Amino acid sequence: MGVGACLLGTAVTAKAPQQSYGSLKQVIAAWPFMANGPKWSAEIFLKKVASLGVSGVELFPAQQWGMLKEYDMVCAATKSHGFVRGMNNKNHWPECFELLEKAINVTGEAGFPNVMTFTGMEDTSNEVHGSRVSLDEGLRNCVEGYKKIAQLAEKKGVTLILEPLNTKINEPMKGHPGYQGDHIDYCVEIVKSV
């Protein structure tokens, strides 16, 4: 049974205690339930996921982080820049650095652990300041860019999470054809080099 099916059948309580499943701490992404699917409010979403005993949520709106503390949860991954215009393309660096810096600062101030980041698409020639970058160039650009922003993340006690995405399926928000970080080895090479 999928997470969505489990959530829909869950009794809603004001505050459910977190359940322990060994050392595994599970989190749930907010966007499939708040922006898509059932389009729950933040409060309804948190009540439902709290009843499952999860320890946090990903990509929860920063304006509503105060609600997370009411449920003894963390924002396990803060949103920064999008997956199209990523660190792989130096033309997008000003935007990426600005959004990463903001996300790192607010995440560190809130005491949350992680900020999500993306390699970006191979071809953004249809975007403002876009262009096409090869896999090798994208890897070099990611390493160089992440080395620059990693210093701020370390200072703020925040970990950057490089998100690999599926490129095999061509369906909105289920597949991301053209995304450069679609292989674990590629993403691991970036992380190891940084």
Overall structural class, as computed from helix and strand content, comes to mainly alpha
Quote the beta fraction. Answer: 5-15%
Q: Give average pLDDT, whole number.
A: 88
By DSSP, the count of extended strands is 5
Give the helix level as a range of percent.
Answer: 25-40%
Number of helices: 7
- Outline the biggest β-sheet: 3 strands, parallel
- Order of secondary-structure elements: HEHHEHEHEHEH
**Poorly predicted parts:** 1-17
Using the alpha-carbon principal axes, give the shape.
Answer: globular
Q: How are the strands of the largest sheet arranged?
A: 1-2-3
Task: Characterize the structure shown.
This protein is mostly helical and 194 residues long. The chain is 39% helix and 9% strand. Strands 1-2-3 form a three-stranded parallel beta sheet. Strands 4-5 form a two-stranded parallel sheet. The longest helix is centred in the last third of the chain and has 22 residues, at 135-156. The N and C termini lie far apart (38 Å).
Describe, in short, the structure shown.
The protein is mainly alpha-helical and 194 residues long. It contains 7 helices and 5 strands, in the order H-E-H-H-E-H-E-H-E-H-E-H.
Topology:
Blueprint: H1 3-8, E1 27-29, H2 31-34, H3 42-50, E2 56-58, H4 65-70, E3 74-77, H5 93-110, E4 114-117, H6 135-156, E5 159-162, H7 184-193
Helix pairs in contact: 5-6, 6-7
